[in-house]
Amino acid sequence: MKRIILALVSLLVCQLAQAAPAQLATLQLGHGLTMNYYISPAPAAPTGIIIAVHGYKRDANRTFDATQAAASAAHQTSLVLVAPIFAVAADESTKCQYAGVPAAQASNAVWRCPTWLDGDAAQNGAITSFSAMDALVAALHKQFPTVRVITVAGFSAGGQFVQHYVGFAAPPPGGVKLRYVAADPGSWLYFDNYRPEPGSAICPGYNDWKLGLANLPPDLTRSPAAARAAYIKADVQYLEGALDDSSGPGTFYKLLAKKCGDELQGPYRLQRGQLYEAYDNKMLAKGAHHLTVVPGCAHDIACVFESPAAQAALFGGKS
Questions:
Q1: Residue ranges of the domains in the chain?
Q2: CATH class label, 2-315
Q3: Other Cβ atoms within 10 Å of 276 Cβ, number
């Protein structure tokens, strides 16, 4: 009986620790610039880290909460949960500010509302959003040396960031496996001229960055061939809400990219994800990258991340 009581107390303590509120921390990026991020209280000797990337509105607090709820539902008690904040300067932040997320501080690297998700350099320094993520991965590994798996996951614009980051990410720290989860991105990075929908001839620039690898920004120093090779080798999982397939309620269709080059990828997010998986299976990783369609969900991070169907993609294991 005593052992049972101690086990129940231990389980309760783990659950309370997992549900503890996020703390705000600061990462030194170099060049006098910093990045803020939410982080969960760390369990003893954590084995994994999930870095969850916010959407266009920079809802890092909501992203953290959804990831924490997902981890709790999946009984993942040995993880450190992190949600970085890509800061935007005050003169533009009203366009992409989410309630409760702190405003940019004087030392923060700052981007414009759409530029952080493209891997662009900060407005006030030489730090790109991709190199900021590299720095966060390295710093967290140094802080938690027992960690063996780091997953970078993102939803919506965060999913777009993650899917584009994969081919340009720094190699993982020694002894660490890097995983990536791209959930419900509005558009995808293609690694050649192929597009699933006809019309390339009437879409000038359809293969330019960030829809393709033509005209890469100079800050992204990896060649197209090297980026493609890195993407093929990486552990990448895709998530799509099954109801994110129209312009109906809950799809946030008004926010979906609809330029000519975007439309070549498909009409809605679900279809774009399914068409990209088919392309990936044929042209890139030959089935190693897997799409999970999450039933009952439209464009909602809490619904998608917290669904049992998403657990294998987010935390590893069989799908």
A1: 2-315
A2: alpha beta
A3: 25
